[in-house]
Amino acid sequence: MDKRTILFVLCVTAAFFAVHTWFGNWVGDERGKREGIRQESTVTAQSAPLIEEPVYVSGNEEFYVLENSYQQLVFSTRGGSLSEINIPFESKENSKSIVKEIDIDRSIVKESPRNARFPLQRFWIDEGNGAVQRDEGSFGGYYPLLRRATLTSKGSVQSPENPEYYALNIIGEDPSIAQVIYRVTKFDAQSIEFEGRIGKRRVVKRFSIPQERSGPYCFNLNIQIDGDAHGLWLTSGVPDVELVGGSYSPLLKMQTTRSSTLEVDELDLPKKGPIVVTSISPNWISNSNGFLGLILDPLGDAGSGYKTIQVPGKELPTRLSLIDAKYNLYPAENYPGYATFLPLKSGEMALRVFAGPFDDKLLKQLDDIYEDPATHYNPDYASAQSIQGWFSFISQPFAKFLFILMQLFYAVTSSWAASIVLLTISLKAMMYPLNNWSIKSTVRMQEIAPKVKAIQEKYKKDPRKGQLEVMNLYKQEGVNPFTGCLPMLLQMPFLIGMFYLLKSSFPLRGAVFIPGWIDDLAAPDVLFSWNTPIWFIGNEFHLLPILMAVAMFVQQRMTAKWPKDLKQATDAQRQQRMMGNMMAVVFAVMFYSFPSGLNIYFMLSTLLGVLQQSWLTKKMKKK
Q1: What whole-number distance in Å separates Cα of residue 361 and Cα of residue 308?
Q2: Phi then psi dihedrals of residue 515, to 5 deg
Q3: In the Cβ-directed half-sphere of 342, how many Cα atoms lie within 13 Å?
Q4: Which pLDDT band holds residue 350 (cuts at 50, 70, 90)?
Q5: Whose CB among 24, 80, 149, 338 lies 3.0–4.6 Å from 182's, allowing a Cys bridge?
Q6: pLDDT of residue 20
Q7: Rounded to an integer, what is the distance from CA 480 to the centroid of its chain?
Q8: Phi, psi of 622 (to 5 degrees)
């Protein structure tokens, strides 16, 4: 590759990530300007005695737990809602769960053990022998799907959670609606029932974990509202943050029926004020952090409209803020949360709630469970999960193709890391003829370099004439200076597809390659860490990007071979070597916080390219 081609490749790569960042910021500024936004009517909330005497009376906020192999549901008497949804980790004792423990979970257990309790505070539970109260929950072993309150080391509340952000709470224009204390009128190992009053309205909420025809990570909610439900909304809660390659990619989606056709749309993330749309009736609405989240699915006629809001990070901090809090490694204000809302109606309303991992295989399993051929009904939960990114229109087909290949390799190896290795080898094999053509062209360019040097010397006073003569030489020798960068340009869609695949494919989250170093293919590798953060590097050392840069450096040294007499090197050769060195540094910086799976893919692809080039060059020299 000459200076122009290398510069072109470098610019394309840098431009992709620059436009990615700029476009994301621009879209954020435009959110909230869509039509149909309006203010809902104000509803006044008042406390009132209940009609019937409850089984359990809750004068202050108390917590009740329902749990199975997939979920730990922590209900609050404030709003009759969910203050926590905790997902158990996959383990020998619980092989049904598919959620793996990652470094963030281990860090919080180590640095903030009081916040690694599940549930967080004292709670009631019925394990089949009646309700008993326990002072504290299990230590570790769960993933907190929802953002929740944080506690000090002594157990006092440090950052309280506003009940408006509890999941499946009822809110209105009056903030006190979310604060209403409900009473528990029924509680057993599989269900709980709340009763409360919002002004003149009587509200009954029944939660249950069905035993028959129930999919993993799903439970049911029935709401009975006696009175006018206008202006009341049901909340989704706020999923906690997941970082993939250092980025936070929450995702809101909605399914609607248009002209008898099911359509799924990605919703704008609100930035300034709520986004309220009243002209659309969602079949379901989902709220995820990219890897895990919730789907609220009304099972009957529901109200028209939906609402989304942004929750400031300082108002409801993510659990990331507990990690290296002394150095403010993860500033709360950098990680706002997002909540979705469905309108409520008078009378009875039934919902199915999914709260768990957005895994393609799992969601398709749920679609099969809840499908009804007689009515041609299929919830199509699988469409709630998708390949993300501002360039998804480019990356999605490549990412889907790559994931199909990876699934095939995983079926053979039972290892996602091995699947990435086999995928890289397969892609290199597919592009072998093209790479051969490129390498041959590069070798021919090196062979005629002295002739190019002689022409440049001859026409030093007439550069334009020299360029024409050089182009004529290329034509006579049958070489093209641009073919050297063609394989890299063709590899870019696969590289982008792999990047977004790792950001969107749940099975790769927590997948281990080398324990103690590469513990999560969807996160950067960590060779070692320290306490005080360093600018850009943070407090972790990632080795894979350095190894990848070394592989690129070796490759460009082989590509840009100098003549034995260094004085005979052309200006283009000098510039090529300089640009090659710069490119290796740029990629090391750019890939430093990228997922380890992506670094493995790119590093192995580069090394295979070095081997192919070395073998072919020797073969050509023998001829």
Answers
A1: 28
A2: -55, 135
A3: 31
A4: very high
A5: 80
A6: 43
A7: 42
A8: -65, -40
Burial 350-360 (b: 16+ CB within 10 A, else e): ebbbbbbbbbb
Average pLDDT, the chain: 83
Helical segments of 416-510, H only? 416-430, 432-447, 449-458, 463-477, 486-504
Lowest mean pLDDT among 85-99, 489-503, 568-582, 589-603: 568-582
Is 70 exceeded by the pLDDT of residue 88? yes
Reference 145, options 330, 295, 357, 342; nearest CA is 357
Average pLDDT over residues 46-58: 34
Sorting pLDDT into bands at 50, 70 and 90, what band is 584? confident
Helix (H, G, I), strand (E, B) or coil at 43: coil
Q: Which H/E stretch holds residue 586?
A: helix 571-590
DSSP structure class, residue 216:
T
Q: What percent of the chain has pLDDT over 70?
A: 85
The number of C-alpha atoms within 13 Å of 82 and in the hemisphere containing its C-beta is 29
Amino acid at residue number 22: W
Burial of 551 (0-12, 13-18, 19+ CB in 10 A): buried
CB-CB contact of 208 with 219 (8 Å)? yes
* C-alpha neighbours within 13 Å on the C-beta side of residue 552: 27
CATH 2.70.98.90 domain position(s) in the chain: 39-373
> CATH topology for 39-373?
Beta-galactosidase; Chain A, domain 5 (2.70.98)
Q: Cα dist. 487→438, 493, 590 in Å?
A: 7, 11, 20
